[in-house]
Amino acid sequence: MFKHFISASQFTSSEMLEKFFEQVRHTETACNSIHGVLPTARGKVMASWYAEPSTRTRISHETAWLKMGGSVTSTADASSMSSVVKGESWTDSIKTLSELVDIIVARTPREGDAANAATVSKVPFINAGDGCGEHPTQALLDVYTIWKHFGSANNLSVGLVGDLKYSRTVHSLLMLLGLYENITYHLVGPERLMINPGEYIKRPGVHFRVHRTIDDLVDIGPDIIYMTRNQQERHAVMDYYHHKWHHLNGKQVERLPKRAIVMHPLPKKMEISPEVDKDPRAVYWQQVKNGLFVRMTLIRILLEEKTCD
Ligand code: NCD
User: Fold this and answer.
1) Considering 3, 56, 110, 209, which one is annotated as catalytic?
2) pLDDT digit string (tens) for 239-256?
3) For the chain, N or C: smaller number of CB within 10 Å?
């Protein structure tokens, strides 16, 4: 399918995504059976390189790899503990890693780093988030969660709430969901943090509307509310959480249609009231679980592709 996974735009049609999701479902079934999955990564090593904080993405990729029989070498604080501190260039670091390991998963603070890594890496490279650019594996697990819940991802109204400008998960999600038919995006956020979905979606026929508050969004009864946190490390919009528009509470969730879902890439902060966690419409823990199967499947595909080279 592809040698590296850098951008959600590498998926070019909903059919391509659906084929991938069928394989993810197969992985999920295998994981839940007594036979488990094939040890595709046995004898192989993953370099897990994080120059930005991570809980889910790092542990998820590493667990995916370990479950497939591989070993991991992990740098969870690459911004302070790697040769980057000595002034080594990003591409030299990647060249070094790719002489040593069989696959690299990396998160960096700069948009474009993942694409540059792919130009020099001899082994598969997975983008685990490049600054405020993209987070394509998160988008895959998000859309897999949507696909499983609704049985398809066509004809959905999708509320995107929060720091849309700096949330890389949103950028990748727009690209993937934009491959489906009849998607309407409903954007909620302050003007300074707003985006133009057209920048991320290349095909015509995707509709979007901007709303002032979450209440306005809840009133239209969307299928999905995708919440994001303020990316405070990337900009200086300090008064963000004082605005009511960005807070989803239990009462609002009760007003949503029964089949609706509330999503969040996590970590969440004050944007979702704790009582929402107990509502069956909150699927963010399912997203985490699905991420494991998505990443196991992606890794297997990348390894197979490499073998074919
Ligand atoms: C996101 C990220 O790091 O981009 N988290 C994640 O990987 N699941 C979202 C965020 O940090 O807000």
Assistant:
1) 56
2) 666 666 678 999 999 999
3) C
User: Measured in angstroms, how far is the CA atom of residue 132 from the centroid of ligand 1?
Assistant: 10
Taking the C-alpha atoms of residue 122 and residue 103, their distance in angstroms, rounded to an integer, is 9
Which of helix, strand or coil describes residue 108? strand
Model confidence at 272: pLDDT above 50: yes
Report the residue among 231, 266, 271 best suited for mutation to probe ligand 1: largest number of ligand atoms under 8 A from its CB.
266
CB atoms < 10 A from the CB of 181, how many? 13
* Average pLDDT over the chain, rounded to an integer: 93
Reply yes or no on whether the pLDDT at 307 is more than 60.
no
H or E stretch covering 285: helix 284-308
This model's pTM is above 0.85: yes
Question: 């992990």: which residue's tokens?
Answer: 74
**SS3 of 223-249:** CEEEECCCCCCCCCCCCHHHCHHHCEC
pLDDT-derived band at 59, boundaries 50, 70, 90: very high
Q: Catalytic: 212?
A: no
Give the closest residue (by CA) to ligand 1 atom 7: 57
The pairs formed by 17-26 with CB atoms below 8 angstroms and a separation of 24 or more are 17/143, 17/147, 17/176, 17/179, 18/147, 20/140, 20/297, 20/301, 21/143, 21/144, 21/147, 23/297, 23/301, 24/144, 24/290, 24/293, 24/294, 24/297, 25/148, 25/293, 26/297
pLDDT at position 201, please?
85
Q: How far apart are CA 182 and CA 207, in angstroms?
A: 8
Nearest-CA residue for ligand 1 atom 8 is 265
